[in-house]
Write a structure and sequence with these properties.
Chains A, B: GO terms for molecular function: acyltransferase activity, transferring groups other than amino-acyl groups. Chains A, B: InterPro entries: Thiolase (IPR002155), Thiolase-like (IPR016039), Thiolase_C_2 (IPR055140), Thiolase_N (IPR020616). 2 copies of one chain form a homodimer. Chain A is of the alpha/beta class. Chain A has 2 domains: about 5-125 and about 215-240, Thiolase/Chalcone synthase (Peroxisomal Thiolase, Chain A, domain 1), CATH 3.40.47; about 135-215 and about 240-389, Thiolase/Chalcone synthase (Peroxisomal Thiolase, Chain A, domain 1, 3-Layer(aba) Sandwich), CATH 3.40.47. Chain A is built from 13 helices and 11 strands. Chain A has a 9-stranded mixed sheet with strand order 3-2-4-7-1-8-11-10-9, sandwiched between helices. In chain A, strands 5-6 form a two-stranded antiparallel ribbon. The longest helix of chain A has 16 residues, at about 25-40.
Chain lengths: ~400, ~400
């Protein structure tokens, strides 16, 4: 009788995030994949299945069949290793990890490689805005001109009005991201920014300024997941996935009961905490999906670190690397970068480094549990993972 | 201690396949999904996870985030049910079933809905050809002008030369598809065609004529999968998934050892037969991926029903509904239709009807095992399922 296996992360790797004009979609995917495989110390014959996370290659690169592409270019096609692409918009990365987690738990596979990749900087100007809007509801939102930034601005306005929040609270999320990114060699922007710089940067969609918005990025990240059996047999060291949960909300923001409470995040967090058997107070650090600074505040609340309207109290000290709940030690989406399909997997790379205590200058002190929050677009899908040892 | 569950199909439904100009992507997905849910006799609160299969919405409909879209429009967002899109090009459908199968086997979910959808006829002429070519290797094949049809023609030429095969053998695959589709109310083309008509139809890519090529189609299909526990608790009738296997080959045909042996199909078939514990002789009917008639011959061989070069001996009598190995009782990709993301799920709808002995005029006599073969593009990915009771 086969029983359900625990699932471990035994290796991780990523490319630098940024404007990588000399690397193609497949270059990036393979670079990250090979780093993770090497880091895990496994061979290609050990790999049972590959999950590729990608949000936009169909639109940007005119390339579908991404799973096969990655397997091919990694030199793994000869072995016939199955490769499947998971698309859940900007949450594709963590959704792919969820699928790999299920694949190993099912007993059908022992070792899964999850690679997330996005190549976004080949297209510029209004065109990338139009393309990014494909993650919104095409018929009810983007058709009328809504973009991810304008939706975030709308949400921010209403939130700031109802809870009497100053713009400063939003900006502090970005200040913290840049502070941490300055210590992350893979980050797209390693410059620190002052609160004044963040507040006074150019307007994008009122009240959001440039420093409230994540950049357009290229990049890839990969991790290797393995069953308990494989870990024991091969004496591997790793980080355990204690919970993997996904939940959904309406795709169009207008259908939701509240535009600043992301029910998908709340539900996924509740499921994850239940499954892991821990509380938000137990979390040592969190990587959250702050594609816009407002989403950083909302995530802190919807994940249970603050009551609704109170995240502002955490943004000065508590979220620092030395604070009660270190937020985005990697630099987050604002400063590490936001290559859609790679973001969620990149969070795992950071959490793996943190929990293995290999995060160098940005190491959180003796972390026990890491929480990862990856979100699609304006909150239609949220994926929450809790990792530990 | 939780143990691994068997997985059952407890409901199935699909839209008509065809040129459905009055229905949008979401209309189609929801129509099929609701039919399957109603057929299964379950409620929305029973559904734990949704898998959406789609190949091209990013390119055609400028809509990514397909999982969330389907959940939303099905009225399931309120419950927060997770929804994930699986993309494996034209094998997206069966790949999504594989993921749902793993999800249930993992013990994390009890009931999964898999919906495949594609909306392809809104775009015409050379543009759809360009878009369909996104399933090939963009940098090594489609960039140079290769299309799915021209690649299939290349493969057919070499196969016909090496094994001295007449065009007639290819055409008989299409004749059989149309014969069966004439009995399927959901099929795009219900007209029977004669061998002469198939042979003399207009040339598309020499030696492939129009009747060797699957059409451009809209359509959606959905099935409901459930755990053994759910089936017993709710006294459901269903069809058991005995094996679910995926394998990969090089994305670009030029890298393969043989261009008319699809290693992905061979490997997935071997895995599936092993896992199900049956042989090809035991199969009562097969639904195979004949987007071009040549692929019908190759599938018969790579799946183990004939030796390489000998599929021609099966195409006159053996593949008929009354023959030894009834092929595509649904009408196959040529005549039932070829809406990319829906095709693989549609094969399950057919197999479910056949194995429940509810396939009406096209019922195969007392079937025991059904084999389903769904393939991506020119064979980069193959998914093989074996169903039984």
């Amino acid at each position: 009788m086969i029983t359900l296996s625990d699932v471990y992360i035994i290796g991780a790797g990523e490319t630098k995030f940024g404007e990588l004009w000399d690397k193609s979609l497949r270059n990036l995917a393979v670079e990250a994949g090979l780093k993770a495989i090497e880091n895990a110390g496994i061979y290609s014959k050990d790999i049972d299945i590959i999950y590729g996370a990608n949000g936009l290659a169909g639109v940007i690169n005119k390339q579908e069949n991404i799973g096969a592409l990655i397997a091919d270019f990694s030199g793994l096609s000869e072995e016939g290793i199955p490769a499947i692409r998971i698309e859940a918009s900007t949450a594709s990365g963590a959704a792919a990890v969820h699928e790999a987690y299920l694949a190993i738990k099912s007993g059908e596979y022992n070792v899964a490689v999850v690679g997330g990749v996005e190549k976004m900087t080949d297209i510029h100007g209004h065109e990338i805005n139009e393309i990014m809007s494909s993650i919104l509801d095409r018929e009810w939102e983007s058709f009328y001109g809504a973009t991810p930034a304008s939706m975030a601005a709308l949400i921010a306005r209403k939130y700031m009005k109802d809870f009497n929040i100053e713009k400063e609270a939003l900006s502090m999320i970005s200040v913290n991201d840049h502070e941490n990114a300055s210590r992350n060699p893979d980050a797209q922007y390693r410059n620190k920014i002052s609160l004044k710089q963040a507040m006074e940067s150019v307007m994008v969609a009122d009240p959001l300024t440039l420093m409230d918005c994540s950049p357009i990025s290229d990049g890839a990240a990969a991790i290797v997941l393995a069953s308990e059996d494989f870990v024991k047999r091969n004496k591997k060291d790793g980080v355990k996935i204690l919970a993997s949960a996904i939940a959904e909300d309406y795709l169009d923001v207008g259908s939701r009961k509240s535009i600043y409470t992301f029910n998908s995040t709340k539900k996924a967090a509740r499921l994850a905490f239940d499954r892991a058997g821990i509380k938000s107070d137990d979390v040592s650090f969190a990587e959250i999906h702050d594609s816009f600074s407002i989403y950083g505040l909302l995530a802190l609340e919807d994940l249970g670190f603050a009551d609704k309207g109170n995240a502002k109290d955490l943004v000065y000290d508590e979220i620092k690397l030395s604070g009660r709940i270190p937020l985005n030690p990697s630099g987050g989406l604002k400063a590490k970068g936001d290559p859609y399909g790679a973001v969620g997997v990149g969070q795992f790379v950071e959490a793996y480094l943190q929990l293995m205590e290999k995060a160098g200058d940005r190491q959180v002190k003796s972390p026990r549990y890491g929480l990862l929050h990856n979100m699609a677009g304006t909150g239609a899908t949220s994926v929450v993972h809790i990792l530990g040892d």
